[in-house]
Known about the structure:
The chain is built from five helices and 14 strands. By secondary structure, it is an alpha+beta fold. The protein has three domains: about 5-60; about 70-195; about 205-320, Glucose Permease (Domain IIA), CATH 2.70.70. Strands 3, 6, 7, 8, 9, 10, 11, 12, 13 and 14 form a ten-stranded antiparallel β-sheet that branches.
Amino acid sequence: MDRYSLIVVADETAPIRRFDILKSVVHRSLWGLGLLAALLLVGLVDYVGLRIEQPEVILLRAEADAQRERLELFETTLTQVTAKLDAVKELERKVRIIANLPGAAATGGGEIAEVTIPDGVENAVEEVETEAAESIEAEHVPVQKLDDSAKVDLPPAQRVGGLRDEAQRLGLVADVRGVSLKQLVDALEKKHRRLASSPAIWPTKGWLTSAYGYRMSPFTAKRTFHSGIDVAGRLGTSVVAPARGKVTFSGRRGPLGNTVILDHGYGVRTFFGHNDEIFVKRGDEVERGRKIATLGNSGRSTGPHLHYVVEVNGKTRNPLDYIFD
């Protein structure tokens, strides 16, 4: 038989009802119910699993957000460190100028004066930086500075790798600066006395009216060489020693009028012309900042001003190369 018969008897008086159902329909229905039950069971298991894993997922998301914030903070810190290292490098350059050490040129493009320092100091930075670059290249460490948009598109692992490489680069740069600054300090300790004798401050307050070099003479209207600088100001303004030195001349000196000459040693002398009053005499020892005269209009002058000259080993130099205050 290919059918199932279902007989329904309600009560003694009701007629008997019979239903015939194909076996194939029954079999298909049972299979369908079984499949539906299986699907429901899988869905229930999946739902229960999600409910169980939800706290862990939330925790992982929180950790990912925290790691992202730490990466951004690390990137910001590296940027700040880079800026600080650049500032240290610039400070070192200025100190080398003030200290009259190799590594920075004067206004005219040459060294301010000859000095003797330990061999290799002037090339220390370049040599260490070259070694650092070769070390990085040898280890196949790419040193690339990415902009913010590029960093956002990188996967976390690559961002971490880039930050590690950048930190390594900064570490090498810091080592370079450390070596250079140590050698600089050693040289400064040996040059302390020379620094105290270097004319590094303005000798008076006022306005720079005539620079060092060729100019049109205000007296002859011809092109002549101006061996110093002119600083105009109020009559009676203090004129101070720009560095430690000894007074070798104090008095009247031709067109310069009332003049003071200081010998700072190491072949360096400074001249102060057109003063009003002079407060030092020949043989006096003066320190940087001591008042030696007042700004005046003596000698051949077109108005109250100081004619200031710096001479090194018998040759005049641009005084602005020595002023750093």
